[in-house]
Amino acid sequence: MEAFSLLLHGFSVLLTWKTLALMMVGLVLGIFVGVLPGLGGPNGVAILLPLTFTMDPTSAIVMLSCIYWGALFGGAITSILFNIPGEAWSVATTFDGYPMAQQGRAAEALTAAFTSSFIGSFVAVLLITFLAPSIASFALRFGPPEFFAVYLLTFCSFVGLGREEKHKIVISMTFGLLLAGVGMDTVSGQLRMTFGWSELYRGINFLVAVIGLFGISEILLTMEERLALRGHTARISLGVVLKVWKELPRYWVTLLRSSAIGCWLGITPGGAIAASFMSYNLAKRFAKDKESFGKGRIEGVFAPETAAHASGTAALLPMLALGIPGSGTAAILLGGLLVWGLNPGPLLFVEHKSFVWGLIASMYLGNVVGFLLVLTTVPVFASILRVPFSAVAPMIVVSCAIGAYAIQNAMFDIWWMLLFGVVGYVFKKIGIPLAPFTLALVLGNRAEDAFRLSMIGSGGDLLVFWSNGLVGSIATLALVLLFWPLISSAIQRFRKKEG
Amino acid sequence: MSKQLGAFGLFVGALGAVAMAANPAAAWEPSKPVEIVVAAGAGGASDQMARMMQSAIQKNNLMKQPAVVSLKGGASGGEALMYMKSSEGDPHKVLIAYSLIYMLPLSAKIPFNWRELSPVSVIALDQFILWSNTTLPHKNVKEFIAAAKAANPPFKMGGTGSKREDQVLTVFTEKKTGTKFAYLPYKSGGEAATQLVGNHTQANVNNPSENLEVWRAGQVRALCVFDKERMQYKAKVTDKQSWNDIPTCKEEGLDVQYLMLRAMFLPGKVTPDQTAFYVDLFKKLVQTTDYKEYLEKQALKPVFLTGKDMVKFLEEDDALNKNLMTEAGFVAN
To answer: If you classify domain B129-245 with CATH, what class do you get?
Structure first.
């Protein structure tokens, strides 16, 4: 019941006109960002982050998290209408969403996507509300070895569970780790890889890298493909909405399963992308008529959207309680917390109650308001895609440049952004995934510091990573995930022999 | 009539000329927003100080132009130093400096020398305290040192950064007592505080402001302050103790002292009247109640030095820091 009274306190922090107005602004911007291909949630939050530097932390996080909710909702719109995933996690939504739109059932598909998104995030928020306090006290048990084990788990799960070819994931990750080492090394107090060049002293900002890698490279690709955007008109009427809602209870197993997958992969950093694919595949596996999937089945929209939104929401929990982001956007929000002078981690729940519970309350309110908002504004957002690409592209490039500059007020960062744009383009061309690179750039430094601090503390003994149950089980899980492809194929071979 | 008007016009013109001639010489004023450059990350002690200045300047109308805070915490603050160095002659940037101006050029070989900047004023001195976790049995310095000596593996001492004031204090505590600590350099004082609370380190040497919250929560114990005299603030901070109740390390038999300056600098090659404007600004600032409340809350030692006094202080402080760094073996070749 303590959680309940704290939550009420959170709502009281939230219910001011200013915060509510910021929430609306955030949601509209977020949906906008989600609709525009290439400009995903992480980019949207990254670009708009500096605008919040002068706000108080609660208002700032409410606005930024609403951009995030908005992007989660908005990502589905283009997937369904144009077969262009607005977000990486909406790729699975295109499988059945786009066929539905082609059959003239766009409105039905959109309603299904929004409703299931809402359900997914609601389950995740409930989880955060009732688990967060206990996770916070649990989090104090995290010293350098535990932190390193968690970073290791994240890296290993990317390699072990990633859909791409393993060696390409490792190449991408290594490249990120290398660049994360540029600048001041906290443990030795020495500068590394700066070549006496003072522009490199501060290291490479990962937000700048993200804007270039995702935003600019997507523009380059689209330019090359001369993508013609032709959309279907989408109108939402009350009748369609009610029809979809009537069908919902029939799919409760799918919804519940997808929410659970989403929450799990959100908390242990696996991400919304993996969650959406996994739950789509599971829904297909458990369905009686597997054939109807991919041909416009409503369940094929429910499953990935529920999981993506649940995972996106749950990803905020480890970020708040442990200071470890569960997703790209959460990583950028983490940067935001540090900028506003909050130390994400164990004591955040103790020291900044108003902030944390204000944020949790905003998850409830933001999702309800966002849900209503997307239902009403679909036709408006769909019209963006009727604007010719040649007009939209320069706007996106300019907003990326402003974002990159504003992060550290450094002109030099715009050059970095352009360079990373080219790097991202090349990576996409030769099929090297960008996510592991970004992950390594964000966590590389922290992982290295945690490892070296553990080594200083233990006198160089690697067994420190198995010195207690907590760190030992995380470290073991990390290794299991790293070798998962080998393990699972071994199990399959074993089963075949048995059979 | 026309003659009279003409004379009047001449008079006005003359007045104007006098005013125009007098203005630039007597009072230079910023013509655009002034950037307060912070050589540390968000939320750290320097950042908090900059935000306090920004609001105190605004609330008390000390300057016509607004002040903006600009965080340049990259390279452990080295970014800010290089930024100030490259802004020669720009009177719209003012740095909040601390001991990094002496230490960073020595330990990381950053090509910087504070003598290339224009000193404005020293505005406070920051203290260091030896803290331990309340769940540990030792209640005072003697018991703590005895336990540290006996400990195997050695006690872990948390601190901010490497080869900086926190590690210097650790090294000198080791030298004076013959103990050995495993020093863990964290990214910020906040992190060092959290890790102490979680029992991942046995002690740290945080500034008062960095451990204030966890001290109030009863999670850490203040063993002693690294200064010749006790802190002056007698109002209760925790339910039992005030800052003044913390003994000095010397009283407790650990003869180590270190104070860290908090000082304002303009870039090099600014004019004397530009410097004069800022000296006057900070003179007014330190008299505001906002500033006095801030000093007490952060338990800073009030000091105000400008001009020759300040340069003398800086030279002495520089020599002292250089000695400490050399003796601790932190000077890079």
So the answer is: alpha beta
